[in-house]
């Protein structure tokens, strides 16, 4: 039985999370217009940014309407309807996680100058992740049982698959974080000194990794010991956190670009994907000058720029 306070608290949780996303959009709307809308139609970063931000907004709007009864009441005992809603929630968070991973992957691939071993490694890890998550979701969803309030009833098989999905997502996050950290530390140790773009990328990778890891661990590992209110809180704020993280990953580089008085940092980082170019050299130099000098040179195109 679900208490009255629990039923009241779910709208509070979903609406508060939705409010945060709207607030984040409003305070960064100027940056979005200046940095994102001006990007070319073939820029993957542009579409990853816009998709993550507004997919999260739309998803949370639907969930807020659902929690407040705006979509009507789910028929009690209708496992088909409950299962569809559960699948929607599961797929939503996985799509947002994949989007954040895609943005981080672009950074890592560019940092390593698009070399073949890194491409093989990232492709392999992503493939393994997909081969784990897709069957786990397909196997888990039909077997989930629900109570009269559409709340999933934990079972051994369902929890095992949930933990498997969590582990696969954490594996990809860990690989991307380690690759970024290794490259950043090795480059920063060079005589040229601290390199602004690598410091930004390393810093962002660290806090995104920590944020996503904590959220996934709480939701995936401690699922059985959380109350329904806490589960709802964790889930909706995972969506907000993923939206916030992915957008900051993109905007922070553009802001560095503007501060350094340089053009093309973001384009160079994503040119291989956006225009079919091969990144020849990534050189961002700060030799102790008061003014940071940064340049990204020689993106040799296989096609037209």
From TrEMBL:
**Keyword line:** Membrane, Transmembrane, Transmembrane helix
Keyword Transmembrane helix in the entry? The reply is yes
* Residues passing through the membrane, by range: 6-26, 85-106, 118-140, 160-185, 206-226, 232-251
User: Do you know which InterPro entries this protein is assigned to?
Assistant: DUF6533 (IPR045340)
Provide the protein name.
DUF6533 domain-containing protein
Q: Which domain of life is it from?
A: Eukaryota
Return the Pfam families for the record. Answer: DUF6533
Domain DUF6533 stretches: 13-57
């Amino acid at each position: 039985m679900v208490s009255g306070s629990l039923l009241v608290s779910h709208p509070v949780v979903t609406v508060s999370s939705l409010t945060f996303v709207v607030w984040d959009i409003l305070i960064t709307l100027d940056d979005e217009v200046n940095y994102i809308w001006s990007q070319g139609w073939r820029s993957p970063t542009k579409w990853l940014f816009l998709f993550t931000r507004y997919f999260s907004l739309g998803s949370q709007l639907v969930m807020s309407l659902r929690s407040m009864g705006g979509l009507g009441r789910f028929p009690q005992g209708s496992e088909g309807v409950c299962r569809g809603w559960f699948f929607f929630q599961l797929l939503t968070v996985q799509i947002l996680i994949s989007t954040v991973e895609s943005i981080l992957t672009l950074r890592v691939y560019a940092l390593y100058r698009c070399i073949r071993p890194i491409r093989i490694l990232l492709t392999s890890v992503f493939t393994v992740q997909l081969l784990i998550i897709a069957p786990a979701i397909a196997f888990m969803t039909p077997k989930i049982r629900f109570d009269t309030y559409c709340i999933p009833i934990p079972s051994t098989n369902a929890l095992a698959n949930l933990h498997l999905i969590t582990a696969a997502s954490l594996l990809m996050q860990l690989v991307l974080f380690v690759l970024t950290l290794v490259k950043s530390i090795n480059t920063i140790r060079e005589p040229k000194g601290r390199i602004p773009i690598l410091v930004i990328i390393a810093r962002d990778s660290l806090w995104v990794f920590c944020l996503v890891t904590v959220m996934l661990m709480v939701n995936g590992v401690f699922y059985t010991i959380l109350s329904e209110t806490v589960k709802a809180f964790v889930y909706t704020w995972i969506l907000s956190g993923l939206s916030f993280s992915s957008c900051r990953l993109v905007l922070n580089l553009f802001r560095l670009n503007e501060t350094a008085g340089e053009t093309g940092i973001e384009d160079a980082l994503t040119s291989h994907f956006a225009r079919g170019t091969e990144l020849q050299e990534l050189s961002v130099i700060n030799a102790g000058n008061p003014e940071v000098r940064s340049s990204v040179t020689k993106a040799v195109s296989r096609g037209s720029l």
